[in-house]
């Protein structure tokens, strides 16, 4: 195989979830059927690496010092929602139920993978949450073991500094039939039941 | 989401088998955890698009006029093996049983996808096979419907020009247990049985 092709296959393997066979298939596909796409991807990667960094306030990806969301005057600056990734933030935005600001951890605590408090920018979060304006921090990390542990850790840390901390409600999903919901979720929904 | 990030996500979707969620995950991963990899991929793509083209003889990807295999004096120039992709050629090379040359179609006949004889460079193959040195063409396209149709088409075309054409043997795979081999394969193995 030619040197450039080997280098390309090797580079494609850096993408998450791509093994040697997929990388080879992608390289052949781009060179055979979509050189324009390869060129576009090359430029997009270069441009993103050059231009994209972290928002000074919320830590998400942005090309400015402060991202559009943090810069938005219409937002309720007393609410700060903590999410693991920009994708999670997008999902919450799509619900149109939250008008506060965000903090994006860009990860979750995961001791087994060597990801500790420093790697998810908790110092930056503490400084952000203690700006004197934020009155409630809403923890919206995932409801996985690691996400729950991360929420617990952050909760303890912020409550020690006198901040009000809340967590997204757990319970039966909208449209969920009890017969098909797992027992853990029903147990939690029972414990957290609300008066109507 | 920032412009550069949107552009990158869109560009990653040009990769075969990558949908919007995967593209987003890849973009976030590269920017968060592997900017060096992103940079490397950008350069690899640019370099490959610039440098890689088709071998004048066998049609595979190469950076020279003629690829290393076609240029190899040790090869038996009377044998020409036709494969669909460079990956197939690599597989055959790994068997160490074939010392002839190759012709890489870079595809297969597939009328439903609009892929006709021109798209798989059959004119170039005919010219190559009629160089006066090649005495046998070994068809090693896949044993799928499309690969079989491609082999049949090429076989008729080359036999009409007086060339000897052969096809890889079909039969029970090495290590195969009859109980678990499909009936079509066993039927073919029965028809093609060899005296011992």
From TrEMBL, chains A, B:
Family to which this protein belongs: Belongs to the RecR family.
Gene name in the database record: recR
UniProt cross-references to InterPro entries, sorted A to Z: DNA_Rcmb_RecR, Rcmb_RecR, Rcmb_RecR_Znf, TOPRIM_dom, TOPRIM_RecR
Keyword Zinc-finger in annotation: yes
Domain Toprim: 78-173
Zinc fingers (C4-type), renumbered ranges: 55-70
Matches recorded under PROSITE patterns: TOPRIM
CDD domains: TOPRIM_recR
Pfam family for this entry, one: RecR_HhH
GO molecular-function term, one example from the UniProt record: DNA binding
Lineage, top ranks: Bacteria, Pseudomonadati, Pseudomonadota, Betaproteobacteria, Burkholderiales
Name of this protein: Recombination protein RecR
Keywords annotated in UniProt: DNA damage, DNA recombination, DNA repair, Metal-binding, Zinc, Zinc-finger
Primary role: May play a role in DNA repair. It seems to be involved in an RecBC-independent recombinational process of DNA repair. It may act with RecF and RecO.
Keyword Ribosomal protein: no
One biological process term in Gene Ontology: DNA recombination
């Amino acid at each position: 195989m030619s040197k450039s092709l080997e280098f390309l296959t090797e580079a494609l393997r850096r993408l998450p979830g791509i093994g040697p066979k997929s990388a080879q298939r992608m390289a052949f596909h781009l060179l055979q059927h979509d050189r324009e796409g390869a060129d576009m991807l090359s430029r997009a990667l270069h441009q993103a690496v050059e231009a994209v960094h972290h928002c000074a306030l919320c830590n998400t990806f942005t090309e400015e010092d402060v991202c559009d969301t943090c810069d938005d005057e219409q937002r309720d600056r007393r609410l700060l929602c903590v999410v693991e990734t920009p994708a999670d933030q997008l999902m919450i935005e799509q619900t149109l139920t939250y008008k506060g600001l965000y903090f994006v951890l860009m990860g979750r605590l995961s001791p087994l993978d060597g990801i500790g408090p420093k790697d998810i920018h908790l110092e930056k979060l503490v400084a952000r949450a203690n700006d004197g304006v934020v009155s409630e921090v809403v923890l919206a990390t995932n409801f996985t073991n690691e996400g729950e542990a991360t929420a617990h850790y952050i909760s303890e840390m912020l409550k020690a500094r006198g901040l009000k901390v809340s967590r997204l409600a757990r319970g039966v999903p909208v449209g969920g039939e009890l017969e098909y919901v797992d027992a853990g979720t029903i147990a939690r929904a029972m414990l957290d039941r609300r008066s109507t």
